[in-house]
Amino acid sequence: MRVDVLGVAFDNITMDEAVDKALELLEQDGPHLVVTPNPEIVQRANKDPEFAGILANADLVIPDGVGVIYAAKILGRPLRARVPGIDFAAALMTRAAQTGKRLFLLGAAPGVAEQAAVNLRASYPGLVVCGTHDGYFKEDGPVADAIREARADIVFVCLGAPKQEKWIAANGGAAGAKLYIGLGGAMDVFAGKVERAPEKFQKLGLEWLYRLMKEPSRIGRMSKLPLFLVSAAGARIRGK
Ligand code: UDP
Q: pLDDT for 156-202, tens place per residue?
């Protein structure tokens, strides 16, 4: 069952359930789409009907940000768990390494996906990273061809939202993989270019605060967060 949070319907699932569902999708004909919306993405979807349609048709909609969890609570329909996209990706790579599924890494600046591949192969022994491509290409066709030729099962698409979801919707079929996951800035983390918040921050749901401390220029993007919660309160009061 999905839970509506200000226009985006989230799967009400735990991390283990999300990974099981992804493994199920890998056994069915694709392409399947997994999205990991945070409040910024929900706000974006409200202004972009094409993007909202793609999210509504995704096979798995994972509540990535703590803001989504707070908003769901304020709306009176709490979600069972926060499932950070990057942790979901990590859990999926563990399973992919055990089952021989092939992973393609798409996105970020030139060289970053290659470095991520080196790091991930070391972190997940047995993981087959079957190809990489940077996220600054002009034509979609050759990128879809590269994924198809690599015979990828899973593709991590890290182009930022909504570009990555739109790319998957338009090219997922041609690229031939079963499962596509939109993971935003995760490639930079996998490559060790961007540090993830220490566990203490993660546990307290304060990853956003750590990111803000490291990159104060994100304040403009993040200042929309309180508004998101105010919208949730408004919707609750109006009985939506
Ligand atoms: N990016 C890309 N191609 C583009 C635009 C962005 O590959 O045309 C990459 C960018 O280098 C970064 C990621 O997409 O690695 C977006 O990161 P951001 O933190 O903005 O995404 P979020 O997680 O907030 O959606």
A: 999 999 999 999 999 999 999 999 999 999 999 999 998 888 888 88
With the most atoms of ligand 1 within 8 angstroms of its CB, the residue from 156, 159, 183 to mutate is 159
Contact predicate 150/131, CB 8 Å: yes
Model-level pTM greater than 0.90? yes
The DSSP line for 206-227 is: -HHHHHHHH-GGGHHHHTHHHH
Could you tell me if 63 and 10 are in contact, meaning their C-beta atoms sit under 8 angstroms apart? yes
Q: Determine whether the shortest distance from the Cβ of 7 to ligand 1 is under 6 A.
A: no
- What CA–CA distance (Å, rounded) separates 168 from 48? 16
Q: Which of 38, 188, 215, 224 to mutate to test the pocket of ligand 1 (most atoms within 8 A of CB)?
A: 188
Q: Where are the domains of the chain?
A: 2-195
The pLDDT tens digits for 58-100 are: 999 999 988 999 999 999 999 999 999 999 999 999 999 999 9
Residue 128, phi then psi, degrees to nearest 5? -95, 105
